[in-house]
Specification:
By secondary structure, the protein is mostly helical. It has one domain. It has nine helices and no strands. Helix 4 crosses helix 7. The radius of gyration is 21 Å and the shape is elongated. The N and C termini lie far apart (about 45 Å).
């Protein structure tokens, strides 16, 4: 019975945590549609989440596309189908690798940053000061970051897709001997609008997850430096796991046979 009790306690704890996150998200959505709106915080969050994440997302996408082209060429050589390199690189980057790797890079950089910032504000009682000044922390801290992430991460995914395809093109034309015109033509022929749209939708969902986890763990961090550290770690880990889980669910919805 003790094993069943521990299992039941774990399940109840998981359900309680899920419920708290859902209620937090509903409160943030409610704060997002009610004035006042803090556009200065939104601009700052857009810069932090979008512009400053561009180098790491771009480099990740470039080297992923380059390595993918090499791997597909070597694998295709066993079946004499090396000509599929451009199309598979483009589809894999746009459908899967671009959104997922972009989401994970943003989770590593942004979720930790948001959790550390808000957690430090909680520890130093700055959030209590906001309440004292009649400023809703959900409207001032959480809502702008959620909206900025939903806007910025799809843009990062789009840029990452282009850079990843460019990385595959560079390797294909310089190392594998594929003519540039033929590579670009194959990419245009096999890439469809639905592929691009599905990746952008994934990016928006991943951005929401990353910002939500960062804000939630930051707002609920324990007092002291150790509490902020635990909140930062929990934000990154939960963001990464939820990004991968959400990616599977959306792939089932978009591309299930």
């Amino acid at each position: 019975m003790s094993h069943l009790a521990r299992l039941g306690a774990a399940v109840l704890s998981l359900l309680a945590g899920t419920g708290r996150v859902v209620l937090f998200l509903l409160a943030a959505a409610h704060a997002l549609v009610r004035p006042p709106f803090y556009f200065s915080e939104l601009r700052r969050a857009l810069l932090n989440i979008g512009y400053f994440s561009l180098p790491v997302v771009g480099l990740t996408a470039f080297f992923t596309g380059a390595a993918l082209a090499l791997q597909i060429y070597e694998g295709g050589a066993r079946f004499n189908v090396q000509s599929v390199v451009p199309s598979i690189v483009a589809i894999a980057i746009v459908r899967e690798l671009g959104p997922v790797l972009g989401g994970l890079m943003v989770a590593a950089r942004v979720a930790s940053s948001i959790a550390a910032e808000i957690g430090t504000m909680r520890v130093t009682e700055q959030i209590d000061a906001l309440v004292t000044l009649s400023t809703d922390p959900m409207r001032y801290l959480v809502a702008p970051r959620l909206l900025a992430a939903v806007i910025a991460v799809p843009a990062l995914v789009a840029v990452g897709d282009a850079i990843g395809i460019m990385g595959g093109w560079l390797v294909g034309t310089s190392r594998l001997g594929v003519p540039s015109a033929a590579y670009l033509q194959a990419t245009r022929d096999f890439l469809e609008a639905g592929d691009v749209l599905s990746g952008l939708v994934k990016g928006a969902v991943f951005g929401l997850i990353v910002a939500l986890m960062g804000c939630y763990h930051g707002m609920n961090s324990d007092r002291g430096a150790q509490g902020v550290g635990r909140a930062t770690t929990s934000a990154v880990v939960s963001s990464a796991i939820l990004v991968l889980a959400a990616n599977y669910l959306m792939t089932e919805v978009f591309f299930s046979p």
